[in-house]
Amino acid sequence: TKNTPASIATKTPARSTYAISCFQRDGSGWPWAAMRTSSGRKRSTNAAVVLAASLAFGVTALKHMKLKDRRWKASAMVATAILVTLFIAHEGWTIRNHHVVPGSKSDYSSGFLYTSDHQEMTSKLWVVRVKNNVSEYITSWIPLSFLNPYETLDHHDHRTPTAAGWLLGLAVLFLMGLGGYRLKRGRILILSYVLITFGVLLLYQEQYTGIRYFTPVLPLMILLLLNGVWEAFTLPLKHIFNKEIPLVPIAVLALAAFLFYPGYKKTRDLYVKTASYKTFIEMNPKSSYAHYLQAAEWLKEHGTNATVVACRKPETMFIYSGYKHAVRFPTSG
Fold it and tell me: CA-CA 20 to 30 A from 111: which of 17, 236, 325, 329?
């Protein structure tokens, strides 16, 4: 893979092929297709997909059991199989890590148990962490991801919560909740996927808040929001006039799309411009990532097979340096 902005900005998810295969003629497969297509590289979001699927099958089993439907056994077996497979995969990966690096610990797991300055978490620190993360996501990251995604590109840009931010964020959450509650298909599956993802994020270190950590569930969040807008206008009109009046909610959705468009266009234009550059250093001479790749390229030209480099993200350095041996700093996350 060439380390150019265009090679990264123009990648197309191969998962779309799998998504198409998930669809059924009656449309019942779309929640699974959407989740599988949107599942990302983050460990928490991939685990959330598995747990959400297991929960959905578990709830289905309980419903069938209540109705005395024999199919409950099949659903229960699938839910159990998913959890057992997740456990075996996790243990296998842990054994592999200990075999490669004896005594190694997961940097990801330590993010839950320690603060950014390596203090062990206490009950008071847990309260502060959850409070800070809830404030960040409700007042900033969630509403901005819909209204102005361009402003979310810098994930280190933490904002001071405002009253307007709280009102906007709570309104968005209300519409998403309404949209999820009124879903006709895949309600448990989709809601559990989104809620498990954010449940993990609220417990993780505060400096790791940002849109990139919930990008895999963002398509489903948009679905919930738009469905919530539709239901917010359809339900009152149906109650007043005792019949559905689809033109009004359609007009509202069209207005929402019109209001969202400027922010999405600004973001899209940035990535189009990014793809036009041949090197990252040309795109942003002060970018630390550009300098990181320059160091890898220098190592590729001047290093030997015996070269060992200590750095962050050694996997990336290994690829772009021509497969020179790369290891983490002992204190790196």
Answer: 325
State the Cα–Cα distance between residues 158 and 288, nearest whole angstrom: 19
Residue 162, CA distances (Å) to 138, 173, 256 in order: 11, 16, 23
Quick check: helix, strand or coil at residue 322? coil
Q: Which residues pair with 327 in a beta bridge?
A: 310
Please state the φ and ψ torsions of residue 152, each to the nearest 5 degrees: -100, 0
Q: Is 76 exposed, middle or buried (0-12, 13-18, 19+ CB in 10 A)?
A: middle
Per-residue pLDDT of 30-42, as tens digits, reads 444 444 444 444 5
Q: Are 187 and 223 in contact (CB under 8 A)?
A: no
Say if residue 309's pLDDT is above 80: yes
Buried b (16+ CB within 10 A) or exposed e, 149-176: bbbbeeeeebeebeeebeebbeebbebb
- Alpha-helical runs (H) found in the chain: 5-9, 15-22, 30-38, 43-66, 72-100, 107-113, 123-136, 142-147, 163-181, 187-203, 218-241, 247-276, 280-283, 288-302, 314-320
pTM above 0.90, yes or no: no
Question: Closest Cα partner for 35 from 149, 231, 191, 145?
Answer: 191
pLDDT at res. 109: 66
Measured on CA atoms in the order 184, 190, 196, 198, is the torsion positive or negative? negative
Tell me the H-state helices in 137-208: 142-147, 163-181, 187-203
Q: What is the rounded end-to-end Cα distance, in angstroms, of the chain?
A: 25
The single-letter DSSP state of residue 129 is H
The pLDDT score that the predictor gives to residue 84 is: 87
DSSP string for residues in 94-125: HHHHHHHSTT---HHHHHHHB-TT-PBP-HHH
